[in-house]
Design a protein that fits this description.
- 2 copies of one chain form a homodimer.
- The first copy, chain A, is α/β, with parallel strands linked by helices.
- Chain A is built from 9 helices and 10 strands.
- The radius of gyration of chain A is 21 Å and the shape is globular.
- The termini of chain A are close together.
- The interface between A and B is large, with 68 and 67 residues.
């Protein structure tokens, strides 16, 4: 995925420069990737590009955006409007990166109806209906860990295809949805490990 | 690191059962790892274990704990006591996993002196002194992105060796410290990618 993101950035750069076609060799040169690797990565997603002629930059950009899910806005529901949920709602880059928080839910009756980040907090009982009506496809779970599995089941039953899980618990979704977990403790353990080994510099949480 | 964590768990299990020695083959059997892989992983960290005799389980456990940074308590400072900082402070597993939030700082004068998660919020001006006095070695940054780099510099100047960064910005620390970033947007992009490809099931943020 890292390399595909890199390819898309380079291809969009070429597109902005008015270029029409690019060979895998040209594409690789600026990125420090071999043309063999590029052809291999792209062939995973079907045949596009012709031997000797290279890729149409416009087609390649469109295809990469599609593969990376960047050709659409992802309607997302956030469940759990406590401190963490509020912090997530005020996190800037989501909207820029193609994610729209389309609804916010919480089980705490005292929060219902109040606004957070310009969005009204809804009752859990409304979740199924709203997720269906607004065609929400992703869910962010920022509820206490005891409630996380039930929340995941509920989101999936309502039609959600992917879950970003902030609760410190492993969700069991079998093959009903995709799950990516953000585990603060695991990141801190990773940091302690690096410091123990004397490793310096920056490592992204998504490496 | 994943494998080392796995080895430690298995070794501690054997230790609890009263076992004294284990061969790399025995260790690997329960874990689905070849003995060659285990010997290779462990040899990275120097010579321990003898051919034909195996490893002393007690020594191996101690060494693995040390390598993974689990043989100590990591004193940690949190900078930024807003919503995200408060959410991090109320995150349960930190203490269990060997991390102690030893001080909390914020630049917002209205927060100074108030308590959050049983800890008093301190002024930024006190950071250097407190980090030195309490021998704090890790920092968690949950400040707005504009303030993140200056906060990192300040923590490192005060003696911090590792930073867990929640701000959506890449920190430049050269070789002065270790940095692990938690990038919510990158995790959500990862999820969108998985959903686009129709991949189901659970993937940890730390994979």
């Amino acid at each position: 995925m890292k390399r595909l993101t890199l390819y898309l950035r380079e291809v969009e750069h070429l597109l902005a420069q008015g270029e029409k076609r690019v060979s895998s060799r040209q594409l690789g040169q600026g990125l420090g990737v071999t043309d063999t690797q590029i052809r291999k990565d792209l062939s995973w997603f079907g045949q596009f590009g012709q031997a000797g002629v290279g890729y149409s930059i416009e087609d390649l950009a469109a295809r990469l955006r599609q593969i990376l899910g960047k050709d659409r806005t992802w309607k997302t529901a956030l469940v759990g409007a406590g401190r963490l949920g509020q912090a997530i709602l005020s996190y800037g880059p989501f909207a820029r990166d193609g994610f729209e928080i389309a609804a916010v839910f919480d089980a705490d009756a005292s929060l219902i109806g109040s606004e957070v980040g310009g969005r009204c907090i809804r009752r859990m009982e409304e979740l199924d209906q709203i997720v269906r009506d607004r065609e929400i496809v992703l869910g962010i779970i920022s509820v206490p860990k005891e409630a996380a599995q039930a929340t995941a089941d509920r989101l999936i039953d309502a039609g959600v295809l992917g879950i970003l899980n902030f609760a410190p618990v492993r969700l069991d979704v079998a093959d009903r949805a995709s799950v990516v977990s953000v585990d603060f403790s695991a990141r801190l353990e990773q940091l302690a490990f690096q410091v123990s080994l004397g490793l310096k510099g920056s490592i992204d949480g998504d490496d």
